[in-house]
Fold:
Amino acid sequence: MNPALKGVRVLLADDHSIVRLGFRLLLEGAGAEVVAECADGESALRSFAEVQPDLVVMDVSMPGIGGLAALERLLAWEAKAQVLMLSAHHDDIVPVRALRLGARGYLCKRAEPEEFLRAVGQVAGGRRYLDPALAQTVALAQLAGSDNPVDTLTEKELAVFMKLAEGRSVNDVAASFCLSPSTVGTHLYHIKQKLNVSNASELTLVALRNGLLEA
Structure:
């Protein structure tokens, strides 16, 4: 039992059911209560409105609008929401974006179970948390700025870029974000210009080089 987590009501959002199960067991073993589980950003937004949790634990990479877009919409609706973002990727671009959007914490999924519970306790207690393994890199990225062209993408362009880099079609991405294919096409044009790429394969390569996709 962890006193910092006793009675904390948590919403879990991750598209892998076995991952959610692991998180649930850890949280409930520490005294927290998992009040909802979701497999995509849209259902996380709906569930948040229904159950009003104390804390949201949400993966960056999920089907549909994805974690970053869901985070942005959630905080636009409820600015005081406490959100801990998780990612399997060990980069600095996504955590900087997540924290800039208003996430209270960010943790790499490679962390030990004890670190996960520490992160949840910090965020649930109203404090900020950043994975120690990412802290220096993220701090330097925020202080020095970045000459990485990916960092020039807007939030929407980054979300579209990550979907396209996974091999999704323009029509698929348009449906995920409730946009018209022509709007996604415009985003794609700007993404290609900013990243100096010409096709889908090069988009995927940029994502891999930046740790935004698993090799």
Observations:
- The two ends are 38 Å apart (CA to CA).
- The first strand starts at residue 9 and ends at 13.
- The chain has ten helices and six strands.
- The chain has a mean pLDDT of 86.
